[in-house]
Amino acid sequence: MRDDTKRETAALVVPAGLDAAPAPVDRRASPRPSRFGFRAALSRPAELGFALAGSVGTLVLWEAIVRLGLANAVFFPAPSTVAAAMARMIAGQDLLWHAGISTLRVWSAFLLAALMAIPIGILMSSYRVVGAALEPIVDFIRYLPVPALVPLSIIWFGVGEGTKIFLLWLGTFFQLVLLVADDMRRVPQEYIEITQTLGAKPRQILRDVAFRAMLPNLVDNLRVTLGWCWTYLIIAEIVAASSGIGFVIWTARRYMKTPEVMAGVVLIGIIGLLSDQLLRALHRRMFRYL
């Protein structure tokens, strides 16, 4: 009678037709994930390899288009010609000194914009009164084209460094304010409620919880807006300038020196790429838990 009861219990636990012990999994038979799959992960060496292959492939294609006569070399010089022009400008025209001046201007304007935009964006998102008062003004100004404000900036700041810094700041600050406000809004409401339940004061919630939670996205947005700041460099350095990469490009344009113009543009891209990689490495180091 007891044996019959055990057999009935086992029949209820293990469905008919299935073994009680799971079959061993043959891991060698599982398919290897494809590198080209949707959102497939890539190892760091593979990522670097694909990046290098894409860059070299683009340069080879560009060189081939010019050498085969598919594009006019006067208006679209080959990369080898651009590289030779860059080397000539570094040796005889102080191109690296001009690059240093431009980098200093961009970082000065960017840091000024960040120091102003981060607290204002946090306040706009944390206190609805501040957000309601400032958001229409910020939205209005950020749609104004920066080149249209060049004459006004000359009237306000003259033709010195102030105008250049102001134009670079103008192209960055109003975009960054809204990005910071969005980062703060994305902090989960549960974090705020939990800390309020524990008796934290608003200042503690803002400093110890909300700011730390938004920090990874904030660093990412700073990286993006630094790139935007570089895009306004030419506009800033054509205003009565005598130094900077924008000045070099604008001067070469007058004499149809297309390789020199392209060399200046490529140098801006190289500096921007190095800055971006530096901030990416900083992000990875600061937020290893992501």
Short summary:
With 290 residues, the protein is mainly α.
The helix content, as a percent range, equals: over 70%
Principal-axis shape:
flat
Mean pLDDT, rounded to whole units? 86
End-to-end CA span:
59 Å
Structure write-up:
- With 290 residues, the protein is mostly helical.
- 73% of the residues lie in helices and 0% in strands.
- The chain has twelve helices and no strands.
- Helix 4 (95-126) packs antiparallel against helix 9, helix 6 crosses helix 7 (161-185) and helix 9 runs antiparallel to helix 12 (258-286).
- The protein is flat, with a radius of gyration of 29 Å.
- The protein starts with a helix and ends with a helix.
- 24% of the residues are buried.
- Residues 9-20 have low confidence and may be disordered.
From the structure above, extract its key features.
290 residues, mainly alpha, flat
List the helices and strands and how they pair.
Blueprint: H1 2-13, H2 44-67, H3 79-92, H4 95-126, H5 128-142, H6 150-157, H7 161-185, H8 189-197, H9 202-231, H10 233-237, H11 245-254, H12 258-286
Helix pairs in contact: 3-12, 4-5, 4-7, 4-9, 4-11, 5-7, 6-7, 7-9, 8-9, 9-12, 11-12
